Amino acid sequence: MQAGPGIYPRSHPSPRAGRVKLVATKAPTRFMKQLPLIDMHALRTFTIAAQERNMSTAAARLGISQSAVSQTIRNLENQLGAILVNRTERPLSLTPAGHVLADRGSAVLDSVLDLANAVAERAKGVNPSIRLGLIDSFAATCGGRLARALAARTTRLAVRTGLTPALDQQLLDRELDLVISSEFMDDRSALASYPLFTEPFVAIIPSAFHRGQSTVAELRQLTAGLPLIRYNAESHVGTQVEEVLRRHQIRSAALLEFETADTLTAMVSEGLGWALTTPLCILQAEHLCRGVSFSYVEELQASRTLYLLARADQHEGFVADIWRLCRELVVSELLPRLEKLDPRLASGITLPDATAPATGNGVSAHRPAT
């Protein structure tokens, strides 16, 4: 701006001034209007509509009318001062603000549920609602007894079964509360790992090929004439077996891979090959063990540990109770059945100290496939 006569910008000295004088100005202070707290019912309604991408389907899930869903979301928009959904698009889509609320809102709802469960746990005579994940081998051998015991201790019990990686991810995504898994989550500070028991890897061999193999060299020799049957590489036990094979240089072409212990054991029973598995997996496929012999190769120095996994801040007392209950099931149910099948299967099982479940560094020595 051109300065008029006798008017000088503050960044320049006047003719009569010997030096520049800097003038500090204070920026105006603005206060953001405090928004009211979001109603949890409205947040749940919105997150379900966001998941379904359809208000009619969301209404059916919630057991209310479509107009109630629409009005609840509109009230939420008015409260937040932001449009959350694009109502003119089919299927329903979210605005950028809607995506933020949907992503963070689900975590908020889970936290509120965790809080409600924690309060209920402390209340006399009330137990929490639990979503439990079990790996297939534990579900098939101990899952029924565990579910029966938990049903009497919880307000609601939902059980999922599957492979370790999928269950672990569902726990991290807060879709499950507890998981019995073969993976020690030592790199996840938000999770606690409670060791249940450790079991060795055992060679299962068609009886026609069994010669009492007890050394790694004998397993290598066996592989020269009989292929190795593997667990699917996507399973955690499959990854563990591959690590053992690499360490001991037991090489066999990957001709046969199976996802479950039942199928793998059935293939061994048919004489198609031999495999490395564990006592729990053998017990899972007990009905298919006809024509199968066991070889215990201590030289492998290979084992896996099963853990009870939980979020570190959730159901503390209840998790400890579940850990003790699982341990009792291992002692009273699992070990006697293994003893009956083959005493050496039972003798290979080791349990942690019964006084209290260890977490964090307390279980760092329990490494699978070592």
From TrEMBL:
Annotated Gene3D superfamilies: Periplasmic binding protein-like II, Winged helix-like DNA-binding domain superfamily/Winged helix DNA-binding domain
Keywords: DNA-binding, Transcription, Transcription regulation
Name of one Pfam family that matches: HTH_1
CDD domains in the record: PBP2_LTTR_substrate
PROSITE patterns linked to this entry: HTH_LYSR
GO molecular function, one term: DNA-binding transcription factor activity
Residue ranges of every copy of the HTH lysR-type domain listed in the record: 38-95
Annotated PANTHER family: HTH-TYPE TRANSCRIPTIONAL REGULATOR (PTHR30126), HTH-TYPE TRANSCRIPTIONAL REGULATOR GLTR (PTHR30126:SF40)
UniProt record similarity statement: Belongs to the LysR transcriptional regulatory family.
Protein name: HTH lysR-type domain-containing protein
Organism, as annotated: Bordetella genomosp. 10
